[in-house]
Amino acid sequence: MNIVYVVSTGIITLFLALSAYSYVFSSSTIDGVRDLGFPDFFRIQLAILKTLAIVFIVIPKVPAFLKEWSYAGVGFFLITALVAHIVHRDSIALSVLLVFLLLTLGVSYWSLNKI
Questions:
Q1: CA atoms within 13 A on the CB side of 78
Q2: What is the pLDDT of residue 100?
Q3: Which end of the chain is more exposed for a tag (fewer CB within 10 A), N or C?
Q4: Coil, strand, or helix at residue 88?
Q5: pTM for the full model?
Q6: pLDDT digits (tens, 9 = 90+) for 35-50
Q7: Direct distance between the N- and C-terminal alpha carbons of the chain, in angstroms, rounded to an integer
């Protein structure tokens, strides 16, 4: 069960780290967030919250309620992103990736509770 947790959590934290980084430093991502209709402050908030989620999910001694809220927040983000990209008529590959990440998040959360 440990390997399932490590791999699934690694995928999620890598996604969160790359996403948070791109929200701040990638002009194409910044423009993409604007094209979806979101303001710049929201992009910065997401970068900060994703970084906090990484810390709360990865550090073992973090209280359980912070881990729970982090998983929920990432789940809400992924669902919101999926809806936004579908409405914006972005590529199906992006929607498939978001569904994969949502399922991976679920596996990470499930396996955390089995450890």
A1: 21
A2: 98
A3: C
A4: coil
A5: 0.92
A6: 988 899 999 999 999 9
A7: 7
SS3 of 12-65: the string is HHHHHHHHHHHHHHCHHHHHHHHHCCCCHHHHHHHHHHHHHHHHHHHCCCCCHH
Type of residue numbered 97: L
Residue 21 tokens, joined: 């980084």
Contact between 43 and 31 under an 8 Å Cβ cutoff? The reply is: no
Secondary structure letter of residue 90 according to DSSP: -
Check if the beta carbon of residue 10 is closer than 8 Å to that of residue 105.
no
Tokens read off for 67? 């881990």
Show contacts of 102-106: CB within 8 Å, 24+ apart: 102/75, 102/78, 104/8, 104/11, 104/12, 105/8, 105/12, 105/71, 105/74, 105/75, 105/78, 106/75
